[in-house]
Specification:
Elements: H1 2-18, H2 22-33, H3 38-45, H4 51-91, H5 109-123, E1 127-128, E2 134-136, H6 137-140, E3 160-161, E4 164-169, H7 175-184, E5 188-197, E6 209-219, H8 224-239, E7 245-249, E8 255-264, E9 281-290, H9 292-297, E10 306-313, H10 314-322, H11 335-338
Parallel strand pairs: 1-5
Antiparallel strand pairs: 2-4, 3-4, 5-6, 6-10, 7-8, 8-9, 9-10
Helix pairs in contact: 1-4, 2-4, 5-10
Bound molecules: adenosine-5'-[phenylalaninyl-phosphate].
Residues 172, 174, 198, 200, 206-207, 210, 212, 214, 252, 255, 258, 286-288, 309-311, 313, 315-316, 327 line the site of adenosine-5'-[phenylalaninyl-phosphate].
Length: 341
C-alpha cells in the first residue's frame, strides 16, 4: 500500500508539473482526487486494513492527498498567471510608439484682424453688433439713402434671391447703421464687422464675398473733427504712431460730406513702393457725416443729433497686413494658403 501511495504521489507530481493548460489540470484533479479518482480508490481501500497498518498508512495517504491538493492549487495559479500574461500580450499597447498627430486649427487671418479691431473699439466704448447677411432691399439701399432707381445702386451690384425680389445678399455693412439706430436710438457708438457680397467680375482686388467693418458714432455736437480723430486713431493702431491719414472727397449717398480715406504706406513710409503702387498712400476706408435722411430712417431726431460713419474694407486690411496679393485666396479654403498664418 505504501508503495502504491508513493507511486501515486510521483505520477501525480510529474503529470501536474507537466500540465500545459487549465483544462488538462481540471482533468488531472478528477483523475486523482475525483470521486472515482485514483487516490480516492486507495483511501477507500484503507477500511480493509488492520489497525496497525491503518496507523502507518493513514497519515501517509493523508499527506499524499494534501500534497496533490496543494500542487494542483499552485499549478492552477501558475497557469492562470500565464494565460493572463498571454492575453495582456495580445492587447499590449506600445506606449513608446509615436502617436497619430492631431492637427490643430487656428484663426483665419481675417478673424485675427477683426478680433483685434473689436478690442480696440470696445476700449473706446463702442458696441460690437451683428446684422443679417441676407438683407432686405429696404435696409441695404433705401434706408441708407439709395432709393429705387438711384444710380448709386449700380455701384454695388448684388445677388438677388429667386422669388424674393425684396431680399438681397447685403453689399455692405451699412444697413446695420439704420437697424442699430432703430434699436438703440441716440447717442450711439457701435461697430459692425461682417461679410458682404457683390456680383463682381472677380480679380486680385475684388471678390464676390469679402468683409467690411462699419462704424457709427452719433451724439449731440459731433463734428467732422471727431471723425478725423477716430480714423487717425484706427490708422495708428493698425500701422503705427507715425501713420498719416489723408481724406479726399468721395460721394456716398449715405454721408454728407463723404470722404475716401487713405493711410500713408507703412512699408515705404510714403516714399512710394510696390504695395502702394508708388503713390505713397493706401486706400482703406470710406467715411463721412451721416446724411439726415439716414438718421430719419433710423428714427433719430436729426435736428438734435449728428453723427459720423465709416466703413473699412476689412479684407483689404488683411491683405495689407500679410502682404497677400490676391484677395481670392482668402475665401478659397485652400489649406496650403491658410497654414501660413
Ligand atoms: C461702402 O461699401 C460703404 N458702405 C462704406 C462707407 C460706410 C462709406 C460708411 C461711408 C460711410 P465701398 O463700396 O467703397 O463703400 O466699399 C468699402 C470698402 O470695401 C472698399 O474700400 C474695399 O476695401 C472693400 N470692398 C468693396 N468691394 C470689394 C470687393 N468686391 N472685394 C473686396 N473688398 C471690397
Amino acid at each position: 500500500m505504501k508503495e502504491k501511495l508513493q507511486n501515486l504521489k510521483d505520477s501525480a507530481n510529474k503529470e501536474i508539473l507537466g500540465c500545459r493548460n487549465l483544462d488538462s489540470l481540471r482533468e488531472l484533479e478528477i483523475k486523482y482526487l475525483g470521486r472515482k479518482g485514483e487516490l480516492t480508490q486507495v483511501l477507500r481501500g484503507l477500511g480493509g486494513l488492520s489497525i496497525e497498518e491503518k496507523k502507518e498508512t493513514g497519515p501517509l495517504a493523508n499527506e499524499v492527498k494534501i500534497f496533490i491538493t496543494k500542487l494542483l492549487a499552485e499549478k492552477e495559479r501558475g497557469l492562470q498567471d500565464e494565460s493572463f500574461k498571454e492575453e495582456l500580450g495580445k492587447e499590449a499597447v506600445d506606449i513608446t510608439e509615436p502617436g497619430r498627430g492631431r492637427e490643430f486649427g487656428h484663426l483665419h487671418p481675417n478673424t485675427t484682424i477683426q478680433y483685434g479691431l473689436e478690442d480696440f473699439f470696445k476700449s473706446l466704448g463702442f458696441m460690437v453688433l451683428d446684422g443679417p447677411e441676407l438683407e432686405s432691399d429696404f435696409y441695404n439701399f433705401t434706408a441708407v439713402n439709395i432709393p429705387p432707381g438711384h444710380p448709386a445702386r449700380d455701384m454695388q451690384d448684388t445677388f438677388y434671391i429667386n422669388g424674393h425680389p425684396d431680399w438681397v445678399m447685403r453689399t455692405h455693412t451699412s444697413p446695420v447703421q439704420v437697424r442699430a439706430m432703430e434699436k438703440y436710438g441716440a447717442p450711439l457708438r457701435m461697430i459692425v464687422p461682417g461679410k458682404c457680397f457683390r456680383n463682381e467680375n472677380t480679380d486680385v482686388r475684388h471678390e464676390h464675398t469679402f468683409y467690411q467693418l462699419e462704424g457709427v458714432m452719433i451724439d449731440k455736437n459731433i463734428s467732422f473733427n471727431h471723425l478725423k480723430g477716430m480714423v487717425e486713431a484706427v490708422a495708428r493702431y493698425l500701422y503705427g504712431d507715425d501713420t498719416k491719414v489723408r481724406l479726399r472727397p468721395k460721394f456716398y449717398p449715405f454721408v454728407e460730406p463723404g470722404v475716401n480715406g487713405e493711410v500713408s504706406c507703412f512699408l515705404c513710409k510714403g516714399k512710394g513702393c510696390r504695395l502702394c503702387k508708388n503713390t505713397g498712400w493706401l486706400e482703406i476706408f470710406g467715411a463721412g457725416m451721416i446724411h439726415p435722411n439716414v438718421l430719419k430712417a433710423g428714427k433719430i431726431d436729426y435736428k438734435k443729433y449728428r453723427g459720423f460713419a465709416f466703413g473699412f474694407g476689412l479684407t483689404r486690411l488683411v491683405m495689407l497686413k500679410y502682404d497677400i496679393e490676391d484677395v481670392r485666396l482668402l475665401e478659397s479654403g485652400d489649406l496650403r494658403f491658410l497654414r501660413q498664418f
